[in-house]
Amino acid sequence: MKKPEVLIVGAGIAGPALAYWLSRNGFRPTVVEHARQLRSGGSAVVVKGPAIPVADRMGILPQLRGLATRNRSLTLLDPDGRRILQLPLTSDKAPTVEVTRADLSEVLYRSAQTEAEFLFDDTVTALDQDESGVDVTFRRSAPRRFDLVVGADGMHSTVRRLVFGPERQFASDLGLYGATVPLEPDAIEDPTEMTMLTVPNRMLVLHPSRTTPLAIFTFRAAQPAPHDRKNIALHKQTVADAYADVRWRAPELVAAFLDHPAPFFDPLTTVRLPSWSRGRVVLLGDAAAATSLLGDGSSMAMAGAYALAEELSAHPGDHARAFAAYESRLRREVGPRQRRVGLLSRLMVPRTRPGLAVRNAVGRVVGRTRA
């Protein structure tokens, strides 16, 4: 019997995880990724909650623990860089593993690469579906037909745009920008400590990561401008303007951002759709329900991949029921997170000094509960 063929668009976190589980449930997955290779670098992500048992079932949990960052504490600084509070980041009550996004992506890819076809340096340009399948046009490869298509291509999903409509219909701006830049290894003194300085409307984090420290900028711009994802010069100027009067190591870290040829920069948004599927096309991970700031994106992607593969296996030949069951399961996880993201953004990056005092007081309470 012919195995159903599934095209997965995106080889970040959700795509390889789904390919792994589909291959073990009687499907033939193909993963297409517009980048020429797996992306290196990137911020640290936390594998936690429902992703822990998924990683355990895949047999990759020991690998992830071996690749974990050494980050064990968060130190909060006042505007002059003086320490005001230190919080533990590990707890026996809730097992988590912090790894770089690149390391997690690599581990998932290696788990799936012998079971799935991977096409790099390519992407989809058109999807034409009917009752029995989806005709896919690629930018480089020859056209092909698949039984199902999964958009696992992130916040700015091409699949979502082609099938559901333009991004502006589903993305909600949190009023914040996020930017990161890698630093030299000697940029940090303690590889077990993450340091955070916050002033009204701006947060600056120095993260030790595993081998390459990162400077992380999260801020509200005084004069938000229309976002152009390709205008690196504008991104650099926006960060420089936002942190011009911030003390501590801000001048040094901003200079590193300005000197980097392609630092990361993006508005922080959430993505909400009334339905994650249309016909034989379904969305997964950030393409379906991105939630900035919470640090749950990778874990939700892994949990979603497992749930989608499980439901497709449980409903052979009935993708509509499988998609509905998968969406119902994941919305129970994602919904509460999206509802509190606005409050969290105000707590993480307060607008005023009294707001900062409240944030720090909350931090002290959290620190006592984890101690």
Automatic annotation (TrEMBL):
Phylogenetic classification of the source organism: Bacteria, Bacillati, Actinomycetota, Actinomycetes, Kitasatosporales
Residue ranges the record marks as coiled coil: none
Pfam families hit by this protein: FAD_binding_3 (PF01494)
PANTHER family (UniProt xref): MONOOXYGENASE, OXIDOREDUCTASE-RELATED
Entries under InterPro entries matching the protein: FAD-bd, FAD/NAD-bd_sf, FAD_aromatic-hydroxylase
FAD-binding domain residues: 5-321
Protein name as catalogued: 2-polyprenyl-6-methoxyphenol hydroxylase
Molecular function GO terms recorded: FAD binding
